User: Fold this.
Amino acid sequence: MPVTPDLFADEPMADSRPARVAIGEQACVLRGFALAAAPLLWSDIEAVARAAPFRHMLTPGGQRMSVATTSCGEWGWITDRRGYRYARGDPESGRPWPAMPSSWMRLAHDAAAAAGFDGFAPDACLINRYEPGTRMSLHQDRDERDFGAPIVSVSLGIAAVFLFGGQQRADKAARVPLQHGDVVVWGGVDRLRFHGVMPLREDVHPLLGAQRINLTFRRAA
Ligand code: SIN
Ligand code: FE2
Assistant:
């Protein structure tokens, strides 16, 4: 029986997008890699946020971040007037960060492997919450002890445009559209590339509502 096009009318466009899109020599987007895991990720995120609530941290310069953050795993990334760094516990509560769910670790490990980085074992997961209008300015991830491990970054919720720049802040940045379920991995020669997120457009996602959540998995220590 011939397959009629309308048989797939309700299928998400994601299915026709290429699975792995290179954005650098050792950097790529894995389209929809976290799509199947997303509902469980989202309920885990809500549980983490009950134990370690989202907060707007201060940059060393005293600016309140527009993106709200929390963490899970052995180490959590924090910023305050004293600088950017990793902390063993949540400075708000004095308690350890919530444990990183083992399914998250597996997802990050498998995404890294699919991007060419074997043996990734994250000890930190930064959870960023963006509302429409918020952005992340260009920066490098360089608070980790060594840069041998890649960065694995999972997008959930409303769409965003990721900026993937060069080794210098002034280098031109590529605009990479990211959707719910996409995973970006960068490491090796691309590990210290500047990156950021353009201001989010107003939108509502069926699962997460009017927000985007980004999970950034790293090897901090
Ligand atoms: C970050 O680099 O910290 C976040 C990137 C993103 O939200 O996609
Ligand atoms: Fe980053």
Helices lie at 38-51, 102-114. The first strand starts at residue 20 and ends at 24. Confidence is low (pLDDT under 50) at residues 1-11. Residues 139, 141, 195 surround fe (ii) ion (ligand 2) (CB under 6 Å).
